[in-house]
Design brief:
CATH topology: Purple Acid Phosphatase, chain A, domain 2
Order of helices and strands: EHEHEHEEHEHEEEEEE
Distance between the termini: 16 Å
Structural class: alpha/beta
Number of domains: 1
Radius of gyration: 16 Å
Strand order of the largest sheet: 3-2-1-10-11-12
Number of helices: 5
CATH class: Alpha Beta
Strand content: 25-35%
CATH superfamily: Metallo-dependent phosphatases
Bound molecules: fe (ii) ion
Largest sheet: 6 strands, mixed
Shape: globular
CATH architecture: 4-Layer Sandwich
């Protein structure tokens, strides 16, 4: 079994970040001993250099390997440069034991809230996904912006502007998991063979209604996968269970 923890929307800053919740989540996640943590953006609230400096200290508290992509908040105020300097590349690919491939995409635009992948990144992703199909690898694509609208989030504004083209690439390659954040609301959609999962906000106080801080845990077995929603300091809910395609 491989365990992946999906966190998102930390919003590390003076005003939008709840340190107590964050530290509680770190201890819960470290206790799970996951194989990796995927962070789908909005690490900082305004992309300020000093927010990134604080953020990397907080991220170092996680014991498992952590892979992050930027969100719209991270690319503000030259934050996309600070991300590269202090966190790492803004888009990347990793392969684990020749069984899993995770592709991280940068859907952010400088000082804009909208999400966009663009043709060069899409073509690069298609190439990587072709390899996954040929080698029969479990494939995960992570990006900050949602590719399909999320319930309970009001008027749609920031769905990926090239969502149709990206969804076509994801579904024709039968990507196993698509991971996003941005809306601070957890959700699952299934389209054809692809599970599209949104994580809530791990530690931001920018929350809707009674939806609290949470993270997702994915247990991937040889023939199935279980997706759990963990409320920080609260209950753990089975969010979805699916057979893995052969
Ligand atoms: Fe956010
Ligand atoms: Fe966002």
């Amino acid at each position: 079994m491989t365990t992946i923890v999906h966190i998102s929307d930390l919003h590390i800053s003076k005003d939008a970040f709840d340190e107590e919740v964050f530290l509680k989540a770190v201890s819960e996640i470290n206790n799970l001993k996951p194989d990796m943590i995927i962070l789908t953006g909005d690490i900082t609230n305004s992309g300020y250099y000093r927010e990134y400096q604080r953020a990397i200290e907080y991220l170092a508290l996680f014991e498992a390997p952590l892979f992050a992509i930027p969100g719209n908040h991270d690319s503000r105020n030259l934050g996309y440069q600070s991300f590269e300097e202090l966190v790492g590349e803004r888009s990347w690919k990793l392969t684990k034991d020749d069984e899993f491939t995770v592709i991280g995409l940068d859907s952010s635009a400088h000082d804009e809230n909208r999400g966009h992948i663009g043709i060069p990144q899409q073509l690069w992703m298609e190439h990587q996904l072709d390899e996954c199909v040929v080698n029969n690898r479990f494939s995960i694509v992570a990006l900050h912006h949602h590719v399909i609208s999320i319930p309970d989030t009001g008027r749609e504004r920031n769905v990926l502007s090239d969502a149709g083209d990206i969804l076509k690439t994801l579904t024709t390659h039968e990507v196993d998991l698509v991971l996003s954040g941005h809306k601070h609301v957890p959700n699952i959609w299934k389209i054809n063979e692809t599970i599209v999962v949104n994580a809530g906000s791990l530690s931001s106080n920018k929350l809707r209604g009674k939806i609290g801080n949470s993270y997702n845990v994915y247990n991937i077995y040889e023939d199935s996968m279980e997706l759990f929603l963990h409320n920080v300091g609260g209950e753990k809910i089975l969010f979805g269970k699916y057979r893995r395609k052969s």
